[in-house]
Design a protein that fits this description.
It contains 2 helices and no strands. With 85 residues, it is mainly alpha-helical.
């Protein structure tokens, strides 16, 4: 008699959200550097910079958390399709 295998979550949605937020915080300053180099500086710089940082962090966190949840769901479905008795 072998051990009964139990499905375990492979992707952490919390870690995905954290990494996504960090990636958003890295990508938005690169966009600001591009805007400064191409001389496309907005009139209200502080609102523009902080607003985009917040939006970039939230968007990255949401995107990565949803991707982790979908990958977990796909892995669970594929695991249930196998003979795991």
């Amino acid at each position: 008699m072998g051990k009964k295998h139990v499905w375990e979550q492979k992707w952490s949605t919390r870690s995905g959200a954290e990494y996504g937020c960090l990636l958003g915080f890295i990508a938005i300053p690169l966009r600001h550097i591009h805007q400064a180099v191409s001389n496309q500086i907005p009139e209200d710089v502080y609102t523009h910079v902080f607003g985009e940082l917040i939006v970039g962090g939230v968007t990255g966190a949401t995107l990565f958390a949803v991707a982790a949840a979908l990958l977990n769901r796909l892995a669970e479905w594929s695991w249930k399709g196998e003979d795991n008795t």
